[in-house]
Amino acid sequence: MSSKWSIIDLNVNGIVHSVRIKDNWTLLKVLRDELNLTGSKCGCDKGQCGACTVLMDGKPILSCLTLAIAVEGQEIVTIEGLSKAGHLHPLQESFVDSHAFQCGFCASGMVLTAKALLDEEDTPDEEEIRYYLRGNLCRCGAHPHIINAVKNAEEKIAKRRK
Questions:
Q1: Confidence bin at 162 (pLDDT 50/70/90)
Q2: What is the 3-state secondary structure (H, E, C) of 103-144?
Q3: Is the pLDDT of residue 63 over 70?
Q4: What's the pTM value of the predicted model, to 2 decimals?
Q5: Are 120 and 146 in contact (CB under 8 A)?
Q6: Which residues fall within 8 angstroms of residue 33, CB to CB, at 6 or more apart?
Q7: Using 50, 70 and 90 to split pLDDT, how confident is the model at 1?
Q8: 61: which of 6, 69, 81, 129 lies 20 to 30 Å off by Cα?
Q9: Are 79 and 137 in contact (CB under 8 A)?
Q10: Residue 129 class from Cβ within 10 Å (0-12 exposed, 13-18 middle, 19+ buried)?
Q11: Where are the domains of the chain?
Q12: Is there a contact between 62 and 56 (Cβ–Cβ < 8 Å)?
């Protein structure tokens, strides 16, 4: 059975895009292939690695398992939407400063998941960080640097709030 075509309005990174899609297309496919936002990666395409993580209304979701048609009317943020006016988000800065990137494949999912955590909890401890990031896999073994990046970002974000 073939899927039908629909035109939906997607709010991605604060911009509403009218996109013609097939009803069975995932959000990841639409982001990458239709909107050319390639920061979200297709790692496993089964919801097990977290490389495709984006934020929907501030909460991390797996875009490889989410139908694009189901998120119409929601606010989607991709890694491309975190930086503002050419300035990295403090969390992105912290990942760079902490050498939390090796191959970078997991980075966008890690950063967005960590952002959701820091939006919920100002000062999570290491156990909370590890628990929150449990659905994001890093095959390079950069987890200690990633944990440090999240801890260091707490301080940067707190300074910007003052």
A1: low
A2: CCCCHHHHHHHHHHHHHHCCCCCHHHHHHHCCCCCCCCCCHH
A3: yes
A4: 0.93
A5: no
A6: none
A7: low
A8: 6
A9: no
A10: buried
A11: 5-81, 90-161
A12: no
Distance (Å, whole) CA 131 – CA 144: 14
Summarize pLDDT for 123-156 with one digit per residue, the tens. Answer: 999 999 999 999 999 888 888 999 999 999 987 7
List all residues 6 or more positions away from 152 whose beta carbon is below 8 Å from its beta carbon. Answer: 94, 97, 98
12 with 31: CB under 8 angstroms? yes
pLDDT tens, 19-48?
999 999 999 999 999 999 999 999 999 999
Tally the residues of the chain.
Answer: 162
Topology (CATH) of 90-161? DNA polymerase; domain 1 (1.10.150)
Return the structure tokens found at 25: 């297309």
CATH: 3.40.50.720, 2.60.40.1120, 3.30.70.2860, 3.10.20.30. Which one for 5-81? 3.10.20.30
Per-residue tokens: 112: 């967005």
Place of tokens 């760079």: 96
